[in-house]
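Figure caption, in words: inputs first, then the predicted bound structure.
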Amino acid sequence: MSTTNEPRPATRRPGPSRSATAARGLLVGVLTAGVALGVAHLVAALVDPAAGPVLAVGSVAVDLAPQPVKAFAIRTFGASDKIALLAGVYALLALSAVVLGALAIRRRRYGLAGLAVFAAVGVAAVLSRPTATPVDVLPVLAGVGVGIAAMLLLVRAARTVTATESSRSRLLNRRQFLVTAAGTALAAGATATIGQTVGRRSAVGARSRAGVRIPPPAQPAPPLPGGVTAGVDGVSPFLTANRDFYRVDTALTVPQVDVKTWRLTLDGAVDRPRTWTFDDLLARGVVERDITLNCVSNEVGGPYIGTARWTGVPLAPLLREAGIRAGQNQLVSRSVEGMTIGTPLDAILDGRDALLAVAMNGEPLPLEHGFPVRMLVPGLYGYVGACKWLTSLQVSTFDAFDPYWVQRGWAADAPVKTASRIDTPKPFAQRRAGPVMIAGVAWAQRRGITAAEVQIDDGPWRPARLADGPSPDLWRQWTYRWDATPGSHTLRVRATDATGATQNGQRAAPFPDGATGWHSTTVTIT
Ligand SMILES: Nc1nc2c(c(=O)[nH]1)N[C@H]1C(S)=C(S)[C@@H](COP(=O)(O)O)O[C@H]1N2
Ligand SMILES: [Mo]
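Bound structure (MTE present):
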């Protein structure tokens, strides 16, 4: 009923059109979700960046994703898999927000119920993180709290419009709705932006890393012979620059560690459990080693392999000093964000250069590669030996504990398989007839590479020239000078390791213990 004394319209005006209601509902939903997320983001930046609901939901998705989905994501999006995942979470959120708004504009109760579902999903996701603490629920609760207030305000403003009959107050009320909507949008933008800024400033890892000095190694790595490089354009550099080194992990935000508060504990079935500070560790003296690291998820010919000069503390003496009890066979390493990795104790104690690495190519470990300390065990794929952002070591058995990837069906024991890759020519390259250099890398960490062979189309396998291989834990470059004839050709490579075993041509996917098969590439010669 209009309470103004304006003349009533001759005919009763119909309520706002369906499309106007739908538009308002959409605005209510999107703005409510926007301000809730903005506030949650800001509070998370203050409390714990990993407790942001979007990241937490994303992390749960990473952990729950069935193996084929993970493999697809890594294959399809590669290093952008995290961005793709977060884009997916945001898309789902946007969709839910639209539904939420449509419900809220009809019945406030439905809208509130929708927000309660958001809150429940958020809280469950945040608390399911392995490193969750009770304060981690604060971002979600603050976000949903402000979301409720925003939704009630917006719905009231939207409803007033629909209930009003006079055109003047209709106009006033429309303005009131728009003002409320604009205010909410502003609040969403402001909280998100401040959260972003605060988050960046609280990047303790970068600050801490800038202050770290690594002492000179007691045992420097022997200089690399010039002959490790084949001298062919297009082959992967022998040492991979830190910025080009592949990155594979489940962390949606790079863990931020301050070396001042960081501790490494060693416990489990040992006689003398111990805790070290970063300086305690460095005081033991560091060695320098050139080691090739690769990922079990690498497809044949894939990019997840690199070689760096690592500086670190030898791991075996640390374990021996602690006194390993009889019957133990697994070392469980844990990272600050809750990853667990299991390594055969045998592999660490057999004399290879198992390290607690603190530096990579002469710099403190980059944040993405595990600052301040990561494990490295030559000859094992990263998921069974290379825990980044390391914080605890526990001597145990394979029977007693399944680490993260083993729980998901990957092999518990995963030595690197002998493999080789053609780096040049690239797939579908066009070259002139005449001499063409085919070249690439081959690896079989711990065993070493003794031969690489190249096959053109269905011709015989012919030996490639091997560049120097100063350590079995390093990849080896190879080259083959091909007299190319016009036409389309398939090039293949296969390698032989020091046990005499030649790579088998049977194609197998990375799951569950590493891909097999010959890498091939097709080129056109004109
Ligand atoms: N904390 C943590 N450490 C981790 C992982 C991880 O997800 N979290 N991934 C492992 C895997 S699967 C590989 S292949 C290597 C990759 O190391 P990089 O990213 O430095 O190349 O780290 C290993 N260490
Ligand atoms: Mo990996």
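The first strand starts at residue 264 and ends at 268.
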